[in-house]
């Protein structure tokens, strides 16, 4: 009996446990909260990730360790890796935890990125603003997710005058400056992208590499709202994206599934960030691909052969944020699938998702239209419908 240990007990751990059941796997999930939703399907060890006694207990009870979220302290991952195999490796996790390290690696691998600057002080911010200009985004280097820990600097009224620039800098520094020492900051140019895309990819313990087709994503207030796959893109652009993902995986000696988030601007791809885990933009693979990201992540970390990443028709995933809508309109669709994460409702929280799947773009657009109308979610489905009909 193989037991997979997962650090973090959110919906990703929950979906990993669900995917692992047919493979005969056991799980042990570690989380700081007794309410962690993966605990509804797998034994839950409640403890602090920095508590050596809790980590030792966890390590003793599992055969391999992986992650549901990337903000587990890298030292804890390193401590565990001296006792039990940990995938992805703590070095890769460490790079993906830090927006600055991640962007420097992208550059080193000739993966284009938006202009950025490391910000350690208010003086750094002023200098970077003079170089990068507005609009731009100040982000924490570490610990951000779902658009948290970010401040958007918009061109101020009277734009360009030194006083106007100082005013936006003051606001940004008031919002995030107090965190500069603890989590670091980075300033990034705002990319007026045409589309957001992601590559969900995997690398095995034997170095084998594969990706699911490119996914197109739409965010609302920094949080993923909808994903459509396969994205309609020029095949050469898709090849470029897969090449970026492959070079990253090889450079990091990465094992498991990861996502590379990309902005597409004027036909060029700019890398946003690397998520060192299964990813929200890959949830559609559960019903929309031969093998899901969750199953293939488990196969990868266990050293098993990867399943095919071939798509089944066309799929669109809709995130439910804050609270779940009525499932009936989705369940009424032939290709409608419902995922309730078993979490209590809370503003801004990802509480579930739906995936609609169909054999043709026309059929998927029609199903999205019906579902969107019935749920009063027309604005959430509209971009995907437009992309399918485009
Ligand atoms: P998550 O890990 O949940 O994807 P995050 O908190 O790490 O989110 P980002 O991915 O950096 O945040 O940003 C969230 C979203 O905000 C992006 O997907 C994109 O829509 C928008 N965004 C972030 N950075 C930029 C940028 N430089 N230019 C334009 N839009 C951006
Ligand atoms: Mg992120
Ligand atoms: Mg992101």
From TrEMBL:
Residue numbers binding ATP: 99, 139, 144-150, 188-191, 196, 219, 272-273
GO molecular function: 5-(carboxyamino)imidazole ribonucleotide synthase activity
Residues annotated as transmembrane: none
Pathway participation: Purine metabolism; IMP biosynthesis via de novo pathway; 5-amino-1-(5-phospho-D-ribosyl)imidazole-4-carboxylate from 5-amino-1-(5-phospho-D-ribosyl)imidazole (N5-CAIR route): step 1/2
Family named by the database record: Belongs to the PurK/PurT family.
Record key words, sorted: ATP-binding, Ligase, Nucleotide-binding, Purine biosynthesis
Key word ATP-binding present: yes
Source superkingdom: Bacteria
Organism field: Luteimonas endophytica
Gene name as annotated: purK
Pfam families in the record: ATP-grasp, PurK_C, RS_preATP-grasp-like
Name assigned to this protein: N5-carboxyaminoimidazole ribonucleotide synthase
